[in-house]
Specification:
Blueprint (H helix, E strand, L loop, with lengths): L2 E6 L2 E8 L6 E5 L2 E7 L4 H10 L1 H15 L3 H4 L1 E4 L2 E10 L3 E5 L2 E7 L6 H31 L6 E4 L6 E3 L5 E4 L7 H13 L8 H10 L3 H11 L6
Helix pairs in contact: 4-5
This protein binds zinc ion.
Zinc ion binds next to loops.
Length: about 230
């Protein structure tokens, strides 16, 4: 059975072909769309079906996503790489976040109304700073191991990608990876560095990743299954 990861407009989906199927079926689970099609149905035909069913699909996708979003703020703790840290909100003259004795202390300005949106914003900024320090260190480590040289490093805020590598050797990483375990964030570093040698997902690319990071398949699966845990 073949499987393809595809996208139409905002909707990304997994397309699988089976010789046993007689008709196309759409299935939504865990906030993801899977299209099961009989062999012979073209991607264009599948895209046309998705376009026709777009409102049904987006409605059900958003419903399952809402159910699966981790609510860290309600739980009163946030993950930072391999740690789970409790956080406290206090009112102060200046807004900011700091780590103290294994707790995250969020200071909110007395002048601003302490909303969840504001809390999310402060924590996001804090994660971005953590990401900048951590990824700078890990890129230095891994590029020495892999004998590669990257250029500028950017920390980004994307809903659908974990990192990138440009042809000018610039690397980018999603701050959300700071909410994942170290072995996951490390995998993304090795993946993007490997693109310095192969700017594609060819067999040679995966061989290079495999050489330095044998658990890459597990890491990819973890990211797919736990994506919703990496949201504030
Ligand atoms: Zn890649």
């Amino acid at each position: 059975m073949a499987a393809l990861q595809l996208a139409l407009d905002e909707i990304s989906y997994l397309l699988t072909y089976s010789s046993k199927r007689r008709s196309v079926a759409l299935q939504i689970a865990d906030g993801k769309l899977t299209v099961r099609a009989p062999v012979g149905v073209s991607v264009a035909e599948v895209n046309a079906l998705i376009a026709r069913k777009q409102s049904w699909i987006t409605k059900h996708l958003s419903q399952t996503q809402v159910q699966h979003t981790s609510d860290w703020l309600k739980q009163g703790c946030v993950p930072l790489l391999d740690q789970l840290l409790p956080f406290q909100v206090q009112s102060a003259s200046v807004s900011g976040v700091m780590l103290s004795d294994g707790s995250v202390i969020v200071s909110m300005s007395k002048r601003a109304r302490p909303t969840n949106a504001k809390l999310r914003q402060l924590l996001t900024d804090w994660y971005k700073q953590q990401a900048n320090t951590w990824f700078t260190e890990r890129v230095t480590f891994w590029q020495r191991e892999m004998n590669l040289t990257s250029a500028a490093l950017t920390i980004g805020n994307w809903k659908t990608k974990w990192g990138y590598c440009k042809s000018n050797a610039e690397l980018g990483f999603n701050w959300r990876l700071m909410m994942a375990p170290v072995w996951i964030a490390d995998y993304v570093v090795v993946h993007e560095l490997a693109h310095l040698r192969h700017l594609n997902h060819s067999e040679q690319f995966w061989q290079l990743v495999q050489h330095y990071y044998p658990r890459h398949t597990d890491a990819k699966r973890w990211l797919k299954q736990n994506q919703q845990r990496l949201e504030l």
